Amino acid sequence: MSAVQVRNLKNEELSSLELPDKVFAYPAKHHLVYEAVCHFRAVGRAGTHATKNRKDVSGGGRKPYRQKKTGRARAGSIRSPLWRGGGTVHGPQPRDYGFNFPRKMRWNAVRSVLSEKVREGKLMVVDELNLDSHKTRDLTRTLTTMGLAEKKALLVDLQVQKSLDLAARNLKGVQTMRVMALNAYDILNHEFVVLTVPAIERLQEFLES
């Protein structure tokens, strides 16, 4: 087990905590992390793109000209895909880009990226993330005290306090998240990960069960 220092929001060392190897000493599995990131981004795609095919384009209810004796090719509608302004053939339609990704693989990817943060020394543990104020300047002052000023930081707690969520909303690069919503993409997208002791205990309980 690797040990980390538990700090408070004033950056004062309180105690030492042994991190469970099953969660924070997992081997780096780049292929698994890649698949987890692809799944996260695919699920997040809106998929609302759409083009109008022949039945969606307005107009074209009558035959544009008679069938024979005009010298032109026969036509049944001005909204044929062959005509200018006609429908699109095989154009994109709304769809869901998500695909099945097993839960065990998702959490193994989380283990892998969290363990990499520990090895890089970019995982911090605090006793709690409770703020007395919901003001952004107070959170900015706290992050500066912790050495995270102008850093991309992911703040993870058992349940995110409303004041913390409101304070972090206007800070670029700072994101709050409850522990059971952790994913490989958001961990990789932030330089530092700040976990509370209850969040670590919940992770250990869930992943070792």
Description:
- This protein is an alpha/beta fold and 209 residues long.
- The chain has two domains: 2-46 and 101-207, 3-Layer(aba) Sandwich (Ribosomal Protein L4, Chain: A), CATH 3.40.1370; 50-93, no CATH class.
- 33% of the residues lie in helices and 15% in strands.
- It is built from seven helices and six strands, in the order ββαααβαβαβαβα.
- It has helices at residues 21-24, 30-44, 103-120, 136-145, 162-168, 184-188, 197-207; strands spanning 2-7, 13-19, 123-126, 153-157, 174-178, 192-196.
- A six-stranded mixed sheet has the order 2-1-3-6-4-5.
- Helix 2 (30-44) crosses helix 3 and helix 4 packs across helix 5 (162-168).
- The model has no long low-confidence stretch (mean pLDDT 92).
Q: What is the count of distinct domains?
A: 2
**Level of helix content?**
25-40%
Query: H/E element string?
Result: EEHHHEHEHEHEH
CATH topology of the largest domain: Ribosomal Protein L4, Chain: A
In round numbers, the mean pLDDT is 92
CATH architecture designation of the largest domain? 3-Layer(aba) Sandwich
Strand composition percent: 15-25%
Number of helices: 7
- Number of strand elements: 6
State the name of the first-level CATH class of the largest domain. Answer: Alpha Beta
Based on CA inertia axes, which overall geometry fits?
Answer: elongated
Tell me the Rg in angstroms.
27 Å
Sheet with the most strands, sense and barrel status: 6 strands, mixed
